Amino acid sequence: MYPSRPPRYLSVRPNSSLAEENQAKYFKIFQTNQKATSVQNNIPQRIELPLFFNTPIRNNKLNIVRQNEKTMDMKYKQLPELNIILSSKRRLKDYEMLAFACKRAGKLKDEGRAYYSIGVLYDNLGKWQKAIEYYEKFLQICQTLQDSHAQGLAHNCIGVDYQLLALEKPSLIHKAIEHHKIHEEISDINGKFLASINLGLCYEYDQRQSIFYFQQALKYATQVSSLVGQTMALGNIGKIGQRGLYDNTEKMQAFIEKYLTLAQNIEDRDGQIQGHLKLGTLSSTKGNYTEGKENFQKALTMVEKDDHFYNQAKCGFAIASAEIQMDQYLLQQGRYFKS
What is the pTM of this model? Predict the structure, then answer.
């Protein structure tokens, strides 16, 4: 006799948080896609809902570029992006009607999902402020239902949109920090990781605070054995350290070497190149041009001539080689004068 199936109205869902689903999805991309790009260190991190929630697909390309009149003009859009924008505009009215109907029927969960979906669609159109209005309605319903996971999702969405708005109006970064801190406070360890990455990016103007949150993110990623998470956190720490020209060179070298190892483990080609470039720069800064040259050479072997890393690796290799030759020349001249 075959086992009975669960009724259709029951939701079969994994026993994990939204943030955990997000990290699992991110890591799966690196495991299955041989041409995966580098881990993106410098962009706000969003929670992505699994497909079974039946919400609109988010256009992440629009979430990481600054919107202006030219980028939002239809004639400048490539076909895939244009399709997403046109689809988003068409579906907005449907979800607005759905939200109204659910509100009249007293279906809070469905009403909240409709508000969230409208927020995603406005994000796809690059209208961050309008999206925030609907994410705040979604948040109010989540608070009424006392759903902490959904509240974390809402705070993440609002915080990221304020980060994007802060590109044009920097004072709004404090609003982003406020929501990411709440997200960190109410979330599990995976949610705390995402919130810490976003807080580290928000505190770009305060190096100590920024490093603190990236180190927190590294701790959380290590606890859950997330290689992608550790790579992301270390990549951001290394990026900050470059601004201060590596005040603590030994500590910075340990971070970069760890970052390079993780990038190799997840086969992140761009991450490996950046690791060798940073080690080459660090070694040259310390006056160890031989080691610097070796790292720049390793980067050169991995890049192609049209790669955006090529010129950086080429220049670093050339400078390190010139410094080595100069040292050898001065050494020979010193011996000549002594004799």
Answer: 0.69
